[in-house]
Amino acid sequence: MNAPVISQNRLQAETQDEQNVRFLFIHQNFPGQFLHIIRHLGRNPENEIVFISEVNESAIENVRRVLYRIARAPEVRSMPGLHEYELGLLRAEAVARAARNLKALGFTPDVIIGHHGWGELLDIKDVYPNTPLLGYFEFFYHTKGYDVDFDPEFPLEADLLPVVRQKNAVNLLALNLNEHGQTPTDFQLKTYPSWARPQINLIREGVNLKHCRPDPNAARRPLEINGHIFAPEKKLVTYVARNLEPYRGFHSFMRALPRLLAERPDVEVAIVGGDSVSYGRLPGKGFPNWREALLAELGGRLDLTRTHFLGQVTYPLYLKLLQRSDAHIYLTYPFVASWSLREALAIGCPIVGSDTQPVREFIKNGETGLLTSCLDPDAITGSILQILTDRELSNKLSRNARREAEAHLDLDVYLNHYERIISDVARF
């Protein structure tokens, strides 16, 4: 049988159709977890990228923004779990409305990629029923064995147990869409029920190893950040979190500092983070934030001439701080690991990490860092002193941290894997 004859014009059109991929991203805080993959996809001028989100000032070249606003605030109810659930439904409704406007203007995506956490994707298949969906599943909540019952200093009241379970309402509706999912770590995948895991792809996030790299000369020159100058002759201990709060071990770290500073007069401490609360409860006794609560608790025992609260810093300064660090502290409850842990490994920081499930996935004790109790200030101090005292150990941890990042956290490897998953999902 003779092969069918295809006109040159038709062949050219089909080739162009294959190259012109239409992506729809959805996340209330543009660009969210999708910064690197959007930049990667945007390098191909044939790709069309549209992003639905709430209003913010961020912008990325070659990405078209579509903004949504929820129609109203959730109603005030006596059941606390209903507020978050209703807000998720309102977001889903607002996103679907924005998507219908897009569709009316002639845009139908080849694939939809978004975050399930805020409910925004729950109605999107009503608008685009034939478009495959790749949704980000971040965390499935539990009343035991994870974050909410981890710290005995903050016991979970019995009447809040239903509220924790209710936080999974959006998760369960998202899983019921029976679409494709993704998550970045084994720990996060295993928070989900065993029956749900087959639909969730593990896509390990990477970092830019060219930007996040060791600087052998960093300790030889002064470093100025937000008015503080860190001198070369001082040892520098660093702590970084989006916000300073117990979920990231801030209370334990602060309680470790008086002994650390007393035993090592050559040490200065740099603390980066805001004063809001991202996770967990607010401080009591009328304190506006956890920083002031811990400062009041420690009273005059903390040397504030060598403890520097830098607030939030620019990304380039943050990288310079980690490059200068003699010991970097990363603590967390059994919860989602921060990007700063990956970046600290890539920079080759000697790390003291909490001996919790999400951190053990990244750090092997004694090889790529030291693991210690997230809730024991004396143990944290001991591990920091061990790194500061033992130069051979510090150099070993630094080298191995960088090697671990090169082996498992390469941004290009991550993006190539991500793109393959997208292709499989969208059947390009």
From TrEMBL:
UniProt-listed InterPro entries:
Glyco_trans_1 (IPR001296), Glyco_trans_4 (IPR022623)
Could you tell me the keywords of this UniProt record?
Answer: Glycosyltransferase, Transferase
Q: Which residues form the Glycosyl transferase family domain?
A: 46-210, 231-403
Q: Which Gene Ontology molecular-function terms are recorded?
A: glycosyltransferase activity
Query: What domain of life does the UniProt record list for this protein's source?
Result: Bacteria
Full protein name? GDP-mannose-dependent alpha-(1-2)-phosphatidylinositol mannosyltransferase
